[in-house]
Every structure is written in C-alpha cells, then in structure tokens.
Design brief:
By secondary structure, the protein is α/β, with parallel strands linked by helices. It contains 14 helices and 12 strands.
Length: 389
C-alpha cells in the first residue's frame, strides 16, 4: 500500500469568510480528508478565519498583519526552510499564487540548496533525498511575466478549462473548476417575487455591470417588475468606476429595482443563488467564472457572455448565452427565461446542475489532483542527494 502524501500547499488567502477566496479553505479541507493524503502544510499570503482538520497546519507570511512585501518574502523563506528541514514533503501544490511558485521553486526543485542559504538559516543542515515536484493552479486570462516563470518552474500546470489558461500548453492539464456541489445545492420552493436577477462579481469594468443595469431599464420600460442585486465590492483601483455605476442607476430612476449588497462570505452566497430567478455573469470570454457554475449547481440558470460556457450549457446555450456588452440581446434572453413554463425551467435547471456535478465537482477535482501528485512522486528522480552536508 502506498504511503500517504505530505503536501506543501501555497494559498493566496486562507479565510473561509473571504468573499472571493473563501472556497480555498474547502479545497484544503477536502484534500485533507482524501485517503491518500497524510498531512498538508499551508503557506498562505494572508490568513483569517478557518476550521481545518488536525492534519492541516497553516502558516501565514503576514499580509493580514500589514507586513511589507520585503518582509513577506523573508517570512516565506523562513517558513519554507523550516518545513524542509523538519518535515518530509512529497509534492507542492501552488493554488492561484504563481509568485509563490517562483519564490519556492529554487529550493523545492534543487537537490542542493546554495551554501549561502545554509549560513543564513542559522547554519542548520538541511537534508532532502529527492526534489519536490510542483503543480501550479492558474485560471485567469491575464498572462504576466510571473506566470510565465511559474509555468517553466512547475512540473504540471492545472486549470479549470482550456480557455482559462492563455499561456503555453506543454504542461497543461484541465481538471475542472472544483465546485462544492454539496454546499452549492438546490433548495425546494419558490424563487423571490418579483423575479430576482443576481450578479455575483466584483464591481469592475471587466465584469460589465452596466450592461445588466441597462437591461433592467429595458425590462422596466416593458412594464416588467423585476429586482436586481449586485453582490461584490470594487477593488481600490475601480472605486471611481463603481461610483459611476451607482450614478447611472440613479440617472435611470432604478433605485427601487437595483441594489448593491457589497461583499458576502462564500457560504452566505448560497442563499442568494437559491433565491434568484436568474444569475447573470457579464464577463467576456475567458476563464470559467466560478459564480456562474455555483449558481448552476444551486439549480439556477446562469446567463453568460463567455463562449467558454457554450459546451457546458449544451442545448440550453441558445437560451442562456448573450452577446457581450449588448444589453438588448441580454434583455431578449432574460425575457425568454422569465417567461419559460415551469416544466421546461425545471428540466433546464436539472440539466445545469448535473453538468456541474459531473464535470466540475470538488470531489472529482481533488481525486484528479491526488492522482497527479502520485504520478509526479512516482516519476521523479530517486537518486538521493545531500543538501549542505
């Protein structure tokens, strides 16, 4: 029987109440329960509230404490060197943080740590029999120089869909989005009345909330009574844009129909998905948006402009896909779904949940990752090397 894997896990945020990154805690929790995983040692950029099993230890480089970037780099190496000295690490998984891949790879991939690092690290000998393979997760349209370096320093790069990774394909493995379909699940009962149009995304130009605002105006002008809720906060750089979006709502006289809820913890979003009639994702073609899949897992239709969803939506694509930035096309599609008969709607909602469960389920994703971990461990060079003897 194969021994249990000890994982080094790099995280951007380890905080289950974080509005956009809270799901990462559940990934760690699910991996920790896998029968082939022994212990997980998480090094995270920022830590908050989390409840994890006893075989998980979390170390933060201190962004939540206000540490400067240089100090966080020092903390990263202090924590990494300490783990390498004291613990058998089999494989490293870098989740959504390619900078940690770049920083860690020289120590993880090398069979010998430079002597200068040995002296800096209090002269404590570091021994490791084999290099540590690295798998990096990345799912975003932006391709930075850091990502390019991380790609070359990784043994494998994993992503949610082929469209979610815009760099080289030589190391790429598509593993799905990893939706917790036990948490994001349907609730029996009626949706909110009047019909609730929901958008879960940060308030930024790339997320295009103005197209939905204009669609609500068109629906109102037709005499339809709907309610629209935006969940999400703007990043600091987009606060002026968010103010313009709110101003536009006022100019159109939609204050009673359009509401901005702000950031909501990941687990609390479930209830909003269950209450809505339609979820609307307004991003252009690129990575699969997690919120759209979460809505579908809750048995709710998700309108999308992202062509990457066409295969997932299958026969319902003509109902749910609209032209990016085209409020009139979005209005036509919304009208069609709002007027859909109950039998057709229930059929659609059942199909949408099933495709998320089958292709983007978190349990399946963790199983796939652990298979990749095992493969890399089996394939790596077994020649023993002494570090700083």
């Amino acid at each position: 029987m194969a021994k249990s894997l000890n994982l080094l896990w790099f995280n951007m945020v380890t905080d289950e109440e974080h509005p956009t990154q809270g799901f990462a805690v559940n990934w760690v929790r699910k991996a920790a329960s896998h029968p082939r995983v022994g212990h997980i040692f998480v090094i995270t950029m920022m830590a908050g509230k989390y409840a994890l099993p006893d075989n998980v230890v979390v170390y933060s480089v201190g962004k939540e404490k206000g540490y400067s970037e240089p100090r966080r780099v020092v903390e990263f190496y202090r924590l990494l060197l300490s783990l390498l000295r004291s613990t058998r690490i089999d494989v490293c998984f870098s989740h959504l943080i390619p900078i940690f891949t770049v920083l860690g790879a020289p120590l993880l991939r090398a069979r010998r740590i430079p002597i200068v690092i040995w002296f800096v690290h209090k002269g404590i000998p570091l021994l490791r029999a084999r290099r540590i393979p690295i798998i990096t997760w990345y799912a975003h349209k932006h391709v930075s120089n850091t990502l390019k370096l991380a790609h070359h320093m990784s043994d494998i790069v994993v992503t949610s869909s082929r469209s979610a990774y815009r760099y080289r394909r030589d190391k790429l493995v598509v593993v799905g989005q990893g939706i917790d379909t036990d948490l994001f699940s349907p609730r029996f009962g009626m949706c909110d009345q009047p019909p609730l149009l929901l958008s879960v995304a940060r308030i930024s130009p790339i997320k295009d909330p103005l197209t939905l605002v204009e669609a609500v105006r068109l629906l109102r002008d037709e005499g339809r009574n709907v309610r629209c809720v935006f969940i999400g906060e703007p990043p600091e750089r987009d606060r002026a844009y968010a103010a313009r979006v709110r101003a536009r709502v006022g100019e159109l006289g939609l204050e009673e129909m359009v509401h901005f809820v702000g950031a909501v913890p990941n687990r609390a979003v479930v209830d909003w998905f269950r209450r809505c009639t339609v979820h609307v994702n307004l991003s252009p073609t690129g990575a699969l948006d997690k919120a759209a899949l979460e809505a579908m897992a809750c048995g709710r239709p998700s309108m999308v402009a992202n062509e990457a969803f066409r295969e997932i939506l299958g026969p319902w694509a003509d109902y749910l896909m609209f032209r990016h930035g085209d409020s009139q096309d979005l209005t036509r599609k919304l009208r069609r779904v709002l007027d859909m008969d109950t039998v057709t709607r229930e059929h659609m909602q059942r199909d949408l949940r099933n495709v998320v469960v089958e292709r983007h389920n978190l349990t399946h994703l963790i199983d796939r990752l652990v298979d990749l971990f095992d493969t890399l461990v089996a394939q790596r060079d077994v020649d023993r090397g002494w570090l700083c003897p």
